[in-house]
TrEMBL record:
Source organism of the structure: Paenibacillus baekrokdamisoli
One term of GO molecular function: sequence-specific DNA binding
Domain (HTH araC/xylS-type) ranges: 170-272
PANTHER family per record: ARAC-FAMILY TRANSCRIPTIONAL REGULATOR (PTHR43280), HTH-TYPE TRANSCRIPTIONAL REGULATOR EXSA (PTHR43280:SF2)
Keyword Metal-binding: no
Entry keyword DNA-binding: yes
Protein name, as recorded: HTH araC/xylS-type domain-containing protein
Keywords (A to Z) from UniProt: DNA-binding, Transcription, Transcription regulation
InterPro entries, alphabetized: AraC-bd, Homeodomain-like_sf, HTH-like, HTH_AraC, RmlC-like_jellyroll
Length: 278
């Protein structure tokens, strides 16, 4: 796998918002979408149909369905045969800003080969949630969630189009990784364009096309996310010091940008989150 993609995965955080095992004899879900989460479902038994656009797919036992945010789809059954479905809703982002999964061209539906192992891990994942008040159980739950994602992505990537990433795309991935690894380093659009030997307008438009935000917008969001982490992790660190670490020339500029993205001043954010932790 491309080294830049590996770097992104190393910085990505998995957040599972909901999960369950359902047994269904009827199913008729039409025009469903999810605003911000992915849904992956594994059909342990039974058959169903998945419609995306004009395409209709057969959902057979051992099949995984992968639904990205905003994708309109139908899923329905044509018989009353029981279907057992393991599913989960999740996000997988770098610094809660960059969604990394679109970079991997995962198919909407594919066959899972290691079914028994996957079912065992899902059962362990479900069981680990029963006692999350204990620290070891919390760690186990997180470990099992990552193991589930590993199984699903490892096999999904075997089905994707294996085209090599072009040198131009490599350059943009390198720029993205630089921002993620060093959000405190402020690069102007002119600097980025000169380093990539491209004009500024193209760099800005192509970056936004690939990653959903302009280079400057991505850089600002990453810096603000780092600031949020510092405000919570080090209660003794002043707002002025955080602004200095993130290479803001003036603390007022940092405070103004923070308030724009977060909706409150840095100290308000710290106080609010510390109260929620107590």
């Amino acid at each position: 796998m491309n080294q830049h993609l590996i770097n992104l995965l190393q910085h990505a955080e998995l957040n599972i918002t909901d999960f369950a095992i359902h047994s269904r004899t009827d199913m008729n879900i039409r025009n469903r979408t999810f605003a911000s989460e992915y849904v992956m479902s594994y059909h342990k038994s039974g058959k169903a149909k998945l419609r995306i656009g004009e395409e209709i797919y057969d959902v057979l036992p051992g099949t995984v369905i992968f639904i990205p945010p905003h994708l309109i789809h139908d899923i329905y059954k044509e018989t009353d045969e029981e279907a057992i479905i393991l599913w989960w809703h999740f996000t997988y982002k770098v610094e809660r800003v960059l969604d990394v999964l679109p970079l991997f061209n995962i198919p909407y539906i594919y066959e899972l080969k290691q079914t028994e192992r996957f079912e065992t891990v899902f059962d362990q994942f479900m069981a680990s949630k029963q006692n999350t008040s204990a620290l070891p159980a919390t760690i186990l739950h997180k470990a099992k969630s990552l193991e589930l994602l590993y199984f699903l992505l490892d096999e999904a990537l075997g089905y994707r189009d294996s085209k090599e990433i072009s040198p131009a795309q490599q350059s943009f991935l390198g720029l993205l990784c630089q921002m993620i690894q060093h959000p405190e380093k402020s690069l102007s659009l002119t600097d980025m364009a000169e380093n990539m030997h491209l004009n500024t307008a193209y760099v800005s438009s192509r970056f936004k096309e690939l990653y959903g935000k302009s280079p400057i917008g991505m850089q600002r969001r990453l810096r603000i996310e780092r600031a949020k982490a510092l405000l919570i992790s080090d209660q003794e660190m002043s707002v002025t010091r955080i602004a200095e670490l993130l290479h803001f020339k003036e603390v007022t500029n940092f405070t103004r940008l923070f308030k724009k993205y977060v909706g409150m001043a840095p100290l308000q954010y710290r106080q609010l989150n510390l109260r929620s932790l107590t």
